[in-house]
Design a protein that fits this description.
The chain has helices at about 5-30, 105-120, 120-130, 150-155, 195-200, and strands spanning about 35-45, 55-60, 65-75, 75-80, 85-90, 95-100, 130-135, 140-145, 155-165, 165-175, 180-190. It is of the alpha+beta class and about 200 residues long. The radius of gyration is 19 Å and the shape is globular.
Length: about 200
């Protein structure tokens, strides 16, 4: 091997090791809690439209249950996402739509990915994405996810995640040009688990 090829190989090996180290750094920084509550601000830029769609609300992320996504502005609504179902509820509590994995086989994968993105489950994400990680000062980090070949790659262009002990920012670029930007704030780990009301909303 001549010097040029040797240096290229060495640089490639160092880059691979740096990515591996960074991903492992992120894995160690993330706090894995059974329940996480917080607020979200979401902005969706639809391709072809000038103004983005904005919404705000609260969420509950339960490791063994799923996600309760409660929009408060501009209109009250709620989406409950589990490993097998997506349920939408109106402001008055009435159930509007329900989709389950029995009729939509791909739903389990979609729900698993969404939960993994919000919770920073790197093991699951690595099954579907090529990951590039950057460790930043003060315990912060950034993670860029490029979908691997398959159906997912035809829908998603790229996913960007940033955080510290928890995921704080998620940006999703879709192949159709749409973009979704989510900022999570006021995060509170739930040491005592789910409340009775939250358990009812998951059931």
């Amino acid at each position: 091997m001549n010097r040029r090829l040797f240096m290229l190989a060495l640089m490639g090996a160092c880059a691979s090791q740096a990515r591996a180290d960074s991903i492992e750094d992120i894995r160690q920084k993330l706090v894995n809690v059974p329940v996480l509550r917080g607020q979200f601000a979401q902005e969706k830029q639809v391709s072809g439209f000038r103004n983005p769609l904005r919404s705000q609300g609260r969420f509950v992320l339960a490791r063994d249950r799923g996600v309760i996504w409660s929009t408060e502005r501009p209109f009250a609504s709620e989406i409950v996402i589990t490993s097998t179902q997506i349920r939408t509820r109106r402001a008055d509590g009435g159930q509007q739509t329900e989709v389950d994995s029995a009729t939509q086989p791909g739903l389990r994968v979609v729900n698993s990915l969404l939960f993994s993105v919000l919770s920073g489950n790197l093991a699951t994400l690595s099954e579907y994405f090529s990951m590039q990680a950057v460790s930043l000062p003060a315990g912060n980090w950034e993670l860029t996810l490029d979908p691997k070949e398959g159906v997912l790659g035809r829908v998603l262009k790229r996913v960007f995640i940033a955080g510290d002990r928890f995921v704080r920012h998620v940006k999703i670029d879709e192949q159709n040009g749409d973009q979704i930007d989510i900022v999570l704030s006021n995060l509170e780990p739930g040491a005592s688990g789910l409340t009775r009301d939250e358990l009812t909303r998951f059931d």
